[in-house]
Amino acid sequence: MLDLKRQNAYRRRYAREHPGWQDSGPIYEATVRRHLRPDTRLLDLGCGRGGLVELLHDRVALAVGADPDLPSLREHRVPSLPRVVARAEALPFASESFDLVTASWVLEHLTAPEQALAEIARLLVPGGRFVFLTPNAHSLPALLNRLLGRMARLQRWLVARLYGRVEADTFPVVYRANTPRTLRRLMQRAGLQCETLTFIGDPTYFAFNELLYRLSCWLEARIPQTMKVHLVGVGRRERQAPDPPPQP
């Protein structure tokens, strides 16, 4: 089984063997921190039980968490953090309420990403940023996940068996905004200029043993950038956001 502890051990090993490499978590955190100021009003979408907002909530003027899963919000590790039960497609805040919106491991779950991105643009002040971390739908793990998604029962069994994740922490993925081309198109339509989009490799997802780790490293060195497993991006709210698309 490749639980998170073992996977992170492989990540540390890969970092030693490839100086300068970082996995997506630290890159995402550094990207978010670059856009923080003491007067920042921050909204973290899909905050769950904690996430990056745990580290940043006391560095900004306001931090708010939003998540559609009420049990996760009730178990949040920062009890003083303002939290709301909400979907990204319908956020209960006034327009231009935030300077920064963050979302890690959220976009891949959205069934209506165009509506969600329009909501994010609506909530941001002109010039505000949306920073996100999400899987790349062109990567091998995502392609396999999409294939298994057609066999939901088998997928749940494999995730529990191979990665040690309980069903309560596993949510369906649809990858409707998870290719660079689709992301840029949907962001532009929502009034968000895509400032940066970074491809980040990570060969540890199939590192169930030494042989598979070495094979994954061999593949990692040969696949194109466009097939790297994760995307970290920054969108900037344009001066005038377009009208949101009609509700489905």
Briefly summarize what is shown:
With 248 residues, this protein is of the alpha/beta class.
CATH class equals Alpha Beta
| Structural class by helix and strand composition | alpha/beta
What are the secondary-structure elements, in order, as H or E? HHEHEHEEHEHHHEHE
Question: Given the structure, what is the number of helices?
Answer: 9
What fraction, in percent, of the residue positions are helical?
Answer: 25-40%
Shape: globular
Low-confidence stretches: none
DSSP strand count = 7
How large, in whole angstroms, is the Cα Rg?
Answer: 18 Å
Question: How would you summarize the topology of this molecule?
Answer:
Layout: H1 4-17, H2 24-34, E1 41-45, H3 53-56, E2 62-67, H4 70-74, E3 83-85, E4 98-104, H5 113-123, E5 124-135, H6 140-149, H7 152-163, H8 180-190, E6 192-200, H9 210-220, E7 230-237
Parallel strand pairs: 1-2, 1-4, 2-3, 4-5
Antiparallel strand pairs: 5-7, 6-7
Helix pairs in contact: 5-8
